Amino acid sequence: ETGVTQTPRHLVMGMTNKKSLKCEQHLGHNAMYWYKQSAKKPLELMFVYSLEERVENNSVPSRFSPECPNSSHLFLHLHTLQPEDSALYLCASSQRLNYYNEQFFGPGTRLTVL
Amino acid sequence: GIQVEQSPPDLILQEGANSTLRCNFSDSVNNLQWFHQNPWGQLINLFYIPSGTKQNGRLSATTVATERYSLLYISSSQTTDSGVYFCAVGGFMEYGNKLVFGAGTILRVKS
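YS: structure for the whole thing
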């Protein structure tokens, strides 16, 4: 595997389900990010991790819970989501955590909440 | 925060035609990236270009940081160039660690 991978690629869940999104980067990077892309909206940053420590949470509802067990893996745990949470969730990584490092994205998980 | 505007919002080209996409931003930046989002949602890095000019095959990009804009040139377009092109910028630390994305340009190349 190369670059940034995400699983699953597609997910359909009910509002009472609990599911997790997984991201893995094979680039030796130290920073990882979760973005959300909703229809008709620009990409929005959700969470930022640097060396497994969360450094930014952009006012994301608590039904989204991130986890970064090591610098290569990032999870997004989902619980009691709403239909408006349906979106493409993208993971990214960069070599270090600073605003001028190039970010590389995974293929995304397309989430549908029924 | 930084505002990013992309133009045009939509573009339809005949195969073989050339095009220029524009990205304007409202403040000084230290990171500017161009991406191509394919129909499956994958964001593909095209250029990391906070300033200057770069070329990669049929694509090239120029960022004039002092005038706060960047241009992406696509020459001899192919149907596989279809998709959404995003410009994203990162500023100084007071704006946080985020890339701020523009709304994108939807490109359709017809054969």
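YS: worth flagging: Chain A has a mean pLDDT of 91.
IM: good catch. Also The interface with chain B takes residues 31, 33, 37, 42-43, 45, 48, 55-56, 58, 88, 90, 97-108, 110 of chain A (CB under 8 Å).
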